[in-house]
Amino acid sequence: MAEKQMLAARLHGPGDVRVDRVDRPGKPEAGQVRIKVTAVGVCGSDLHAYQDGRIGDTQVASALCLGHEFAGVIEAVGQGARGGAGEQLEVSQRVAVDPAQPCGRCELCLHGHPNLCEHHAFCGVWPADGALREAMIVPADTCFALPEGIDDEQGALLEPLGVALHAVDLAHIRVGQSVAVLGAGPIGLYIAEVAKLAGATPLLVTDRLPWRLALVERLSDAQTCNVQTQEPAAWARQATDGRGVDVVIEAAWSGDSIAQALDIIRPGGRLVVVGIAGDDQLHMKHSTARRKGVTIVMCRRMKHTYPRAIALTAAGKVDLSGAVTHRLGLAETARAFEMASSYAEGVGKVVILPQDDGQRA
Known about the structure:
Largest sheet: 7 strands, mixed
Order of helices and strands: EEEHEEEEEEHEEEHEHEHEHEHEHEHEHE
Strand content: 25-35%
Shape: globular
Radius of gyration: 20 Å
Distance between the termini: 33 Å
């Protein structure tokens, strides 16, 4: 007889993650699949909910499964279940899952901007449960089949890579332009990798944690600046022969990162804001942005990126697992979030493996 319950890691309040027994999902309906979740990345967006019980102005009003970077294996298929590439999905197929579930009918969706849909659900953002559980039902068209050369961990990390691709798309980087990435967390790291592919020269990355900077140097060959020991604007001017940076991509969530971006950028430059501020406020000096004539673009998640992310990963153009420093079982979820949110020394990307009984690495 099939097990009727499963384990799920749920957020019950700020800093309060518990592994609960919950009902296992039943049969998928038409256009749906049920997956066994195999890998989930812990994202900075998850940490907002973990620390504050909200992200932006969206409050977590009841127990919630976090986790929106995930991959799994299909256990059951509903009628007419076709994947994001239009293919018929099958049991035992490994898939990466886009956590966004747009309506597909509103003006923004029809104009090709599903990431801006006002009627969407998003896995792991209240009230929609995320992937930190053993199994879940998802819309079939959010699933993308993984080729043999991409493992489940990499499949989960296609989501943050998709955010990086969307940020670089918005940046309109031209070959030979200087690019600075502020924040060397996993998203900043993947942005640096993609910006390098886009032809950024020089490529500059700032952070305050030395092990993060060492990781980005290894994976992207970027020039780096520790903002705890160097003045970033002077450093950036020196790296660009006094000109300032053509494109700045902000991927931090500190209060002064936008001000730093405006100091670093050249007149007429372009700023892409990816990070989510903990206080839900954007702090900047108006005169600096105005006098420089800076174009400021806000990055919301991603759109239409999974096929490109899969192709780049399969071709070895990006290193997704290079950012991963810890792999834990579902029972260790509370520890994983504490490690990630406290910026414990040496912690980069943390991946949770819901099918493992305990800690892997």
